[in-house]
Write a structure and sequence with these properties.
The protein has helices at residues 19-26, 31-36, 66-77, 110-117, 160-163, 170-180, and strands at 6-7, 16-17, 40-48, 54-64, 81-82, 84-85, 91-92, 94-102, 124-128, 139-147, 153-158, 188-189, 195-196, 198-208. It is α+β, with helices and mostly antiparallel strands. The chain has one domain (2-208). The two termini are 27 Å apart.
Length: 212
């Protein structure tokens, strides 16, 4: 399978929130959570249809108040998204992995401190050969994968949406793509219930392999 992976396939992109949806999602705080002083942070996965409508939002992990985390995930699933794009540049099924955090600023509140300190965790941690790469410490690389209906990576590129214009060394991106392509991905179903291809973003932590 590895030989058929298309690296640096710039045409693919994962789903993303529209500017308006981003403001709706992060521009307000639930009244009940303010009154009760509740805070939460959650890493979530949102499946987005080709028409930009969310199919589902799943919490991968959370800290803080569970009710607030679930409300945030539900609210995210009601927003309008820019759909994923496949190799042909056309909208396709996709999954957005993202981090939703909202907290009351209160240094004396344990939950507030825990949530404000929470950070997204890598989706994959991979070891790379340092004989050809000058990697001396862990490096975070943000990627986009095209996954086929069997759960294999068919294309891979750097995630420009998540990197906010900052480019990673191309050799590191290719190394991350090559290693990630060896890991089976979840299988998604289309609306008819059949396995289908999709695009997903992923945060990969590269670590130097131990010397043999």
């Amino acid at each position: 399978m590895l030989g058929s992976v298309l690296f640096l396939a710039a045409a693919i992109s994962a789903p993303s929130l529209t500017t308006a949806a981003n403001k709706k999602l992060f521009g307000s705080y639930p009244d009940w959570a303010v009154l009760q002083g509740k805070s939460s942070a959650a890493q979530v996965e949102i499946v987005v249809e080709p028409d930009g409508k969310a199919r589902s939002c799943t919490i991968v992990w959370f800290v803080g108040d569970e009710r607030l985390a679930q409300e945030r995930c539900t609210k995210a699933s009601r927003q309008k998204f820019i759909p994923a794009k496949g190799l042909d540049g056309q909208p396709t099924l996709g999954t957005l992995r993202t981090f939703l955090a909202q907290w009351i600023v209160d240094d004396n509140d344990t939950q507030s401190r825990e949530v404000s300190a929470a950070r997204p965790t890598p989706d994959l941690t991979l070891k790379v050969d340092t004989s050809t790469l000058s990697l001396t410490e862990p490096l975070i690389v943000k990627l986009v994968f095209l996954i086929d209906s069997d759960g294999f990576v068919k294309a891979c590129t750097e995630d420009q949406n998540q990197n906010q214009g900052q480019q990673t060394d191309g050799r590191m991106v290719e190394a991350a793509c090559e290693q990630a392509a060896k890991v089976a991905a979840p299988i998604l179903l289309d609306r008819a219930g059949a396995p289908t291809a999709y695009v997903i973003n992923s945060t990969v932590r590269l670590e130097p392999a131990a010397a043999s």
